[in-house]
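Researcher: Quick test of sequence recovery. Tokens follow.
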């Protein structure tokens, strides 16, 4: 049962931009906000989706190379939990701040142009960092600054990407396409650590930064080839007043929509109690098992192979009919696997639990994103996915602001166990609450009937 949505603002009579009468119902280049996209309306959706995912994959590969390079560089050079905590804060907090506005922009502006602009800005900042480091400027604050800029760009890019996908993919195909996207990303996570380790060991961190610039340009070029239907909004008001109204409307929608609110809260808890502590696993390996780069690489590979296999299963199977039951069950497994990480005294047992956590990621993230794409109206998806970005961006530094300093006083093993136990308790409370039971019942009732057909 959805909570009442905020009343739509009346469009200004002389406001620029599309009006209801501008779009004919038969126009294939116009996506009506009130109707889900069907396969008949987008006969070339497979080609467009393939090109779009290829471009995003290229951009993602470069970003992941930079992420691993900076994380390993800081870990090996400082071995400090406090430094890692600062990196987490500057790498995720700007995304939270910018996502407040990025979600509104994704609902008001051309989502395709937003993605291209954000990708270009991120690539430019990385290029400047590479040139400065080649000139001898290698202070930590430079890495922090560029990480913050990249994070801000993600605050614009993430809600635009998430809300653009339903504009080119038929609604009944979203779960499968999201599963395929997760599989591709997992494959990149399998490739990226090996490529990053090779470049970091044989070349330099600057070489990785240059690779990121090239992959971003490839991603931008491919995205220009994808025709994206124009999303018609009849409630959009021009100017600052309309922007503020959209921002307030998005906040009100998330706050009053019980289902969306419950999903975002669970998403945030998982990021605080599982994703943030797992950010310390490289530190645990260096302290407990040794500082060889291959051990850090295998740690990432174990996680990535698990994600790859999990993504293949979700893309092939399609998942449970009840998306929320799938998410809750996976969350319980995350908690148990996290405890397993903490009690592991053998490096290969540790890697096995990292593999299992990776295996579970598509079973958590894919149904979460899909259920939001299915249940949230297209004209509000940018703002909702902006809040998803906020939750992700705030939860990580929030968790690391606690776990990072604690890692300098206590063992990472004990923190992983404590986080796993805490997550088990949270799941019990979340499912036991009336809002949790309603969310599962609503997801079951709203499950699409055509999911079995590819």
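Model:
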């Amino acid at each position: 049962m959805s909570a009442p949505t905020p009343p739509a603002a009346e469009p200004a009579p002389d406001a620029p931009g599309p009006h209801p009468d501008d779009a004919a119902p038969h126009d294939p280049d116009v996506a009506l906000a009130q109707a889900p996209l069907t396969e008949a309306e987008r006969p070339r959706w497979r080609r467009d989706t393939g090109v779009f995912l290829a471009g995003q994959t290229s951009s993602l590969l470069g970003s992941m190379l930079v992420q691993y390079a900076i994380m390993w560089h800081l870990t090996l050079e400082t071995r400090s939990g406090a430094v890692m905590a600062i990196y987490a804060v500057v790498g995720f907090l700007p995304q939270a701040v910018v996502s407040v506005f990025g979600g509104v922009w994704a609902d008001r502006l051309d989502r395709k142009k937003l993605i291209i602009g954000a990708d270009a800005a991120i690539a430019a900042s990385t290029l400047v960092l590479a040139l400065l480091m080649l000139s001898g400027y290698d202070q930590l604050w430079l890495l922090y600054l560029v990480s913050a800029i990249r994070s801000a760009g993600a605050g614009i890019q993430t809600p635009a990407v998430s809300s653009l996908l339903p504009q080119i993919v038929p609604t009944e195909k979203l779960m499968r396409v999201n599963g395929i996207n997760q599989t591709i990303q997992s494959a990149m996570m399998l490739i990226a650590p090996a490529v990053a380790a090779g470049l970091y060991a044989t070349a330099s961190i600057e070489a990785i930064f240059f690779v990121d610039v090239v992959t971003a340009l490839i991603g931008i070029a491919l995205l220009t080839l994808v025709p994206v239907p124009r999303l018609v909004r009849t409630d959009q008001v021009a100017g600052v007043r309309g922007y503020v109204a959209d921002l307030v409307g998005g906040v009100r929608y998330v706050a009053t929509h019980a289902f969306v609110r419950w999903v975002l809260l669970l998403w945030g808890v998982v990021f605080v109690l599982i994703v943030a502590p797992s950010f310390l696993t490289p530190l645990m390996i260096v302290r407990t098992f040794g500082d060889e780069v291959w051990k850090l690489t295998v740690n990432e590979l174990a996680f990535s192979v698990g994600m790859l296999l999990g993504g293949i299963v979700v893309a092939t199977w399609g998942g449970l009919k009840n998306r929320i039951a799938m998410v809750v069950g996976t969350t319980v497994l995350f908690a148990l696997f996290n405890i397993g990480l903490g009690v592991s005294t053998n490096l290969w047992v540790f890697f096995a639990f990292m593999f299992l956590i990776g295996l579970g990621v598509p079973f958590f993230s894919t149904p979460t994103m899909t259920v939001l794409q299915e249940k949230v109206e297209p004209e509000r998806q940018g703002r909702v996915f902006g809040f998803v970005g906020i939750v992700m961006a705030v939860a990580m530094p929030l968790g690391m602001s606690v776990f990072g300093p604690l890692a300098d006083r206590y063992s990472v093993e004990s923190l992983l166990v404590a986080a796993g136990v805490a997550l088990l308790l949270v799941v019990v409370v979340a499912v036991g609450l009336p809002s949790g039971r309603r969310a599962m019942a609503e997801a079951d009732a709203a499950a699409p009937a055509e999911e079995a057909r590819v």
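Residues 36-231+256-445 form a domain with the Growth Hormone; Chain: A; fold (CATH 1.20.1250.20).
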